[in-house]
């Protein structure tokens, strides 16, 4: 974290024999819109035929070594700030199963298509201890990486973790991605869950995200300034969800 993007290249896989090229055009235009929002050009790229559509950007950027923000330097006394609600994995599964209403789909799309640009701007000039984005390993998986790499433990409060609307009900009804279940299975031996937390709630914290927010570890005395910056920069969401402590028996404690 802490780098400045310079330019990007498109990488696309597309089943041109099965889908009209107009769809590929829309995909590429969507990537271009996001690149423009990030303030960088797309200089070209590569497209290949594939049975399953895939799209991504390869981004080249620069970073000053002293401004690099790692996921390995969290300190006891830090607070944890999460900048996007969770639940895109669960909602994506609901969409596949035909169980997601239009408003839920739109919320998930808005969440995934919102860049972390405002969050990155909000961190500038502040003594950020550690930071990671929340993606495929879910909140628990990525927080475990911070704790393991920093040799600390964390406490998070379930009731302070934001979720997209409707995720609770979907999870209660068993709409859970396979990847989310694997995430929880991988990390659960490193986590102490409060007995009041039910199985579906634990899975919600492990939900595999697409284009999730940032998890920021910052000294508590600087957290109010970070929250103020996030508010002024109109960040999608910002919640203090827990705190970093000295290394304990478990890496993460969920209350």
Structure description:
The protein has 255 residues and is α/β, with parallel strands linked by helices. The protein folds into two domains: 4-62, PurM-like, N-terminal domain (60s Ribosomal Protein L30, Chain: A, 2-Layer Sandwich); 69-254, Phosphoribosyl-aminoimidazole Synthetase, Chain A, domain 2. The chain has nine helices and ten strands. The protein has a seven-stranded mixed beta sheet with strand order 5-8-4-9-6-10-7. A three-stranded mixed beta sheet has the order 2-1-3, covered by helices on one side. Strand 1, helix 1 (21-38) and strand 2 (42-49) form a beta-alpha-beta unit. The longest helix has 18 residues, at 21-38. The chain is globular. 35% of the residues are buried.
Q: Quote the distance from N terminus to C terminus.
A: 29 Å
**CATH superfamily (homologous) name of the largest domain:** PurM-like C-terminal domain
Largest sheet: number of strands, sense, barrel closure: 7 strands, mixed
- Main sheet strand line-up: 5-8-4-9-6-10-7
Task: Report the mean per-residue pLDDT as an integer.
Answer: 95
In the CATH hierarchy, the third-tier topology of the largest domain is known as Phosphoribosyl-aminoimidazole Synthetase, Chain A, domain 2
Low-confidence stretches: none
Number of domains: 2
Q: Specify the number of helices.
A: 9
Series of H and E elements: EHEEEHHHEHEHHEHEHEE
Shape: globular
CATH architecture of the largest domain: Alpha-Beta Complex
Structural class: alpha/beta
């Amino acid at each position: 974290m802490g780098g400045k993007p310079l330019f990007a290249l498109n990488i696309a896989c597309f089943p041109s024999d099965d889908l009209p090229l107009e769809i590929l055009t829309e995909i590429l235009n969507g990537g271009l819109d996001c690149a423009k929002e990030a303030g960088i050009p797309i200089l070209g790229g590569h497209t290949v035929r594939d049975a399953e559509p895939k799209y991504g950007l390869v981004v080249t950027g620069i970073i000053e070594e002293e401004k690099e923000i790692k996921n390995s330097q969290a300190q006891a006394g830090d607070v944890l700030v999460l900048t996007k609600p969770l639940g895109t994995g669960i909602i994506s599964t609901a969409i596949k199963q035909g169980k997601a209403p239009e408003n839920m789909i739109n919320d998930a799309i808005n969440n995934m298509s919102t860049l972390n640009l405002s969050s990155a701007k909000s961190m500038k000039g502040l003594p950020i201890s550690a930071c990671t984005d929340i993606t495929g390993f879910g909140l628990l998986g990525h927080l475990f990486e911070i704790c393991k790499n920093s040799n600390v433990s964390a406490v998070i409060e379930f009731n302070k973790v934001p979720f997209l609307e409707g995720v609770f009900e979907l999870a209660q009804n068993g709409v859970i991605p396979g990847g989310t279940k694997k995430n929880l299975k991988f990390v659960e031996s490193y986590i102490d869950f409060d007995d009041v937390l039910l199985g579906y709630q634990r899975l919600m914290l492990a939900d595999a995200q697409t284009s999730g927010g940032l998890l920021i570890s910052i000294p508590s005395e600087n957290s109010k300034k970070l929250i103020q910056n996030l508010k002024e920069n109109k960040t999608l969401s910002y919640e203090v969800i827990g705190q970093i402590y000295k290394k304990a028996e478990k890496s993460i404690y969920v209350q």
